[in-house]
Write a structure and sequence with these properties.
Length: 211
């Protein structure tokens, strides 16, 4: 698993330097994207779902943020976007639990970028609950409430669900996108950060037309 994650990351490194193509990326099952043998139910029935699996410790996920965030803000009302932390053990699990805690507290949208910056630019590890609590407190999050939520039974259930979803999606590296629980693709298969969103747009249109 570790080797596969590293291979995906190395592929992403070479692709971040590519410029976006004006024309649509040719969709080709098994190449541009993978169609899942067993589709995964979406979280909001009736809407087309786009999932991004990520890790705060991934430099490619961090570099993808300025590209994906404006795209997410412009998604039409029939599309539901959600982030799911990839949790492959060690710091992946710690950071995933951090994200799920912030999301459960309703402050993820305020703190998400600051967490990325702290880990990617400031050299903070943020792998221990006390360290996380001290940091999010600098962002206006109640420290005691954070610790209580972090250790709650509800968060444990969400961790289990996130891990199960990543397994069902067949995710082996990040960042990876899933459209409507049916199609999996990443920077390597699509051809870069702009191209991966082009693929997402086309698959969203495909799902919309199939309704």
């Amino acid at each position: 698993m570790r080797n596969l994650i590293l291979s995906a990351a190395l592929a992403a490194v070479s692709l971040f330097g590519m410029t976006a193509q004006a024309a649509d990326v040719p969709l080709e099952a098994g190449k541009t994207y993978v169609e899942l043998a067993n589709p995964v139910p979406v979280s909001v029935p009736g809407k087309i779902e786009v999932v991004e699996l990520f890790w705060y410790g991934c430099p490619h996920c961090y570099a993808f943020e300025p590209t994906i965030n404006p795209w997410v803000e412009k998604l039409p009302s029939d599309v539901n976007f959600k982030r799911i932390p990839a949790m492959f053990g060690g710091p992946w699990d710690a950071h995933g639990q951090l994200f799920l805690t912030l999301e459960a507290m309703g402050v993820e949208h305020k703190v998400h970028n600051a967490v990325f910056e702290a880990i990617q630019k400031q050299g903070k590890r943020l792998t221990k609950p006390e360290e996380m609590a001290d940091f999010v407190a600098t962002q206006g999050v109640d420290k005691d409430k954070f610790i209580a939520t972090f250790n709650s039974f509800a968060i444990q259930g969400q961790i289990k669900q996130a891990k199960e979803l990543a397994q069902k999606y067949g995710v082996q590296g990040v960042p990876t996108l899933i459209v409507n629980g049916k199609y999996r693709f990443d920077l390597g298969t699509a051809g870069g950060p702009e191209a991966v969103l082009n693929v997402a747009d086309q698959l969203i249109a495909k799902e919309r037309a199939a309704k």
